[in-house]
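Archive maintenance. Older records in this collection stored only the sequence; we are now back-filling the structure field for every entry so that each record is complete. The fields below show one back-filled record exactly as it appears after the update. Entries are processed alphabetically, and Probable GTP-binding protein EngB is next in the queue.

ARCHIVE ENTRY
Title: Probable GTP-binding protein EngB
Organism field: Candidatus Thiothrix phosphatis
Length field: 203
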Amino acid sequence: MNHYFQQARFLQSATTRKTLPAERGLEIAFAGRSNAGKSSVINQVCSQKSLARTSKTPGRTQLINFFCLPDGDFLVDLPGYGYAKVPEPVKLEWQKFIESYLTQRNTLRGLVLVMDIRHPMTEYDQTMLRWAQGRALPVHILLNKADKLTRGASANVLLQVRKTLSGFGVVSVQTFSALSKNGLDECWDILDQWLGRDADRQG
Ligand SMILES: Nc1nc2c(ncn2[C@@H]2O[C@H](COP(=O)(O)OP(=O)(O)O)[C@@H](O)[C@H]2O)c(=O)[nH]1
Ligand SMILES: [Mg+2]
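Back-filled structure field:
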C-alpha cells in the first residue's frame, strides 16, 4: 500500500462555490462518468474499503468531497456525470460548478479521469479534457474495469485512446482495475509525482 494515501480522511463536502474549503496545499481531483468506478478507484488508491462510497446505483454522489492528507494535500472526489434522474437545469448547474472548480481552483495540481475501458472517451470525458487543457492542468486517465476485457483487448483500447489524446495537452493514460488492483503502482507513481513526493509504500 501507499502509506501516504492510506492516511486520507474525509474532511468536508461542498455543493456550491461558497462552501469550497479555502485554497491551501495541493489538490488532486478525481472525475468520471457515473459508474465508471471512481469511488472504487479512490478506495483502492487510499487502501480503504469505504472512504468514498461505492454504489450499484449510479449518480448518487452530487457533492464535491474533500479528503485531507497528512502533509496538507487533498484528494477531491468530483460528482459523476450522467446521473439520469437529475433534471436538466440541475445538471447544468452542476456542470457549471465542476467547470468553475476545474478551471479556477488555484491549488489543483492534477486530474485523474476515470473511464470504463469498455466506453472510453465519452463526450463528457472530452469536455473535462478540454477544461483541463485550457489551463494546462495535467490529466491522468485510468481505463478502469480492465478485468472485464482480455489483455489483448485492453492493450488495444489503450493504444486507441493514446492516439486520440495528442490534441489534448499534458495527458497520460493507463489500464486499471479497481477490482484486481492492476495498475495501482503506476497510478501511485503519478500521484506521488504530482505532489512532489518520493514513493512511500510497502507491500
Ligand atoms: N469488474 C469491475 N467492477 C468495478 C471496477 N471498479 C468498479 N467496479 C464496479 O462498478 C460499479 C460502480 O463503481 P463505483 O465505484 O460506485 O463507480 P462511480 O459511480 O464511478 O463512483 C460498482 O458495482 C463497482 O463494484 C473494476 O475495476 N472492475
Ligand atoms: Mg461514486
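Update note: The chain has a mean pLDDT of 91. Residues 38-39, 55, 61, 80 surround magnesium ion (ligand 2) (CB under 6 Å).
Entry marked complete.
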